[in-house]
Design goal:
This protein folds into four domains: 142 residues, 3-Layer(aba) Sandwich (Rossmann fold), CATH 3.40.50.620; 143 residues, Rossmann fold (3-Layer(aba) Sandwich), CATH 3.40.50.620; 43 residues, no CATH class; 99 residues, Arc Repressor Mutant, subunit A. The chain is 46% helix and 14% strand. The protein has 19 helices and 14 strands. Helix 15 crosses helix 16 and helix 15 packs antiparallel against helix 19. This is Glutamate--tRNA ligase. Belongs to the class-I aminoacyl-tRNA synthetase family. Glutamate--tRNA ligase type 1 subfamily.
């Protein structure tokens, strides 16, 4: 049975890159009726928090990526000690100042793995035991195979396996090898930034006589400037996109397209069920994917329009905009790209939007704009208050005064909505109500009249 895992560190919110890794693991597991494991690598006690853990879990649930089993490394500390003792017994690891150090050359010699001349690795300044010292590192070729990138090669270096403490804390390299084995993970689908770690992991697996899983290292997600996606490109946490009014369907859809596409198909709008059915590892792309917010906005708008008015209204209410109703949403649905745009399109229903006289008259003369408002007020006061009836009267009035409909409607639109761009005007007038519409027209007339008096 396929068993895959997501192993985030709860030291920050769920990043888009980690969410994509979760998605591909989830799709592969569900496609093959396997298990999707969530494992928190929470051994960094100074940075790991419950708040971040809850954000990761809530974000995964929001995306619909539910897991089958959950583990925490800090609850498994006793297990790592057992494997370390096996390595010490083989002479490939040794205790040093309360920690345990892996010795790369001894391990490679014991396994009979060929390596090139000793090279100097980059100084590991994050490790107190190796600070300002060159690591002993050895280049190995073709030590394994990545299903996406082919032969695996890289440096195997002296590394800390257990940090001193009470109890001792495992480092990433030891914990990931032990956890993957004990949790029966047989496919490791993770970010390409872990590819350099893989030779060491394979060496540890061979020393401990445990099977090597199939590896798939996903290419990075880049920003439009072709550098690694980061905060300088904007929001990078899934929860931030939720707060900004994106739908989970759109996020899942877009993340799937960042590094994967169904061979021979060009369909871009795909839900989770369709993605599960279509997903294949062999369709993953080797080259980095570029994140374009504009493309996500487009996809989000498409997903907004896929929802029924009732469902979209429910989501908007849940998002926090409690005053809107289905009538309002029905006339703005085609214009929305994100849920946080709802106030822009609907605020005028609940309050007078301030505007200046210059906006009210636009390119018209003040007297002409005033006359239009006066005629509109007289005509609409006698109109049956349905959008189609209002439209008929407005069209008739435009013909009578020899104006294009858009010129006639301009000052009316400003008077009612406060903006030159608004939802469909006649439908908006019907929703706003006859009394409030006429009141706003009168207010606009008074503004222009007062202006004319001051000029005179």
């Amino acid at each position: 049975m396929v068993r895959v895992r997501l192993a985030p560190s709860p030291t920050g919110k769920l990043h888009l890159g980690t969410a994509r890794t979760a998605l591909f693991n989830f799709l592969f597991a569900r496609k093959n009726k396997g298990a999707f494991i969530l494992r928190f690598e929470d051994t960094d006690e100074t940075r790991s928090t419950k708040e971040y853990e809850e954000d990761i879990k809530a974000s995964l649930k929001w995306l619909g990526l539910y897991w089958d089993e959950e583990y925490h490394q800090m609850e498994r500390l006793a297990r790592y000690q057992e494997y370390v003792e096996k390595l010490i017994a083989q002479g490939v690891a040794e205790k040093f100042k309360g920690a345990v150090i892996f010795r790369a050359k001894k391990a490679l010699d014991k396994l009979g793995i060929e390596y090139k001349a000793k090279v100097k690795a980059v100084k590991n300044k994050s490790d107190e035991l190796q600070k300002d010292k060159d690591l002993n590192a050895y280049l190995v070729e073709n030590i394994g195979r990545d299903l996406l990138h082919g032969p695996i090669k890289g440096l195997v270096s002296d590394s800390v396996l257990l940090r001193s403490g009470n109890p001792p804390i495992p480092t990433f390299h030891l914990a990931v090898v032990v956890d993957d084995y004990e949790m029966k993970i047989n496919y490791v689908i993770r970010g390409e930034d872990h590819l350099p770690n893989t030779p060491l992991h394979i060496v540890l697996q061979r020393l401990l006589s445990i099977p090597t899983p199939f590896y798939v290292h996903l290419p990075l997600i880049l920003g439009p400037d072709k550098t690694k996606l980061s905060k300088r490109h904007g929001a990078v946490a899934v929860s931030d996109y939720k707060k900004a009014g994106y739908l989970p369907e759109a996020i899942v859809n877009y993340l799937a397209l960042l590094g994967w596409s169904e061979k021979g198909k060009d369909k871009e709008i795909l839900d989770l069920k369709e993605l599960i059915k279509a997903f294949k590892l062999e369709d993953l792309q080797k080259s980095p994917a570029v994140f374009f917010k504009e493309k996500l906005d487009w996809l989000n708008g498409e997903w907004i329009r896929q929802l029924s008015v009732k469902e979209l209204t429910a989501r908007i209410l849940d998002f926090g905009y409690k005053k809107v109703d289905e009538r309002m949403i029905s006339i703005i649905q085609k214009r929305l790209k994100r849920l946080d745009e709802v106030p822009y399109w609907t605020d005028f229903f609940f309050q007078n939007i301030p505007y200046k006289k210059e906006l009210l008259k636009g390119e018209l003369e003040e007297k002409q704009a005033l006359e239009i408002l006066k005629l509109a007020l007289a005509r609409f006061s006698k109109t049956q208050w349905k959008s189609d009836k209002i439209k008929i009267e407005a069209t008739s009035l435009a013909q009578e005064v020899n104006l294009k409909p858009k010129d006639l409607l301009y000052p009316i639109r400003i008077a009612i909505t406060g903006r030159s761009v608004s939802p469909p005007l006649f439908e908006s007038m019907e929703i706003l109500g006859k009394d409030e519409t006429l009141k706003r027209l009168e207010k606009a007339m008074i503004m222009l009249k007062n202006s004319s008096i001051r000029k005179d």
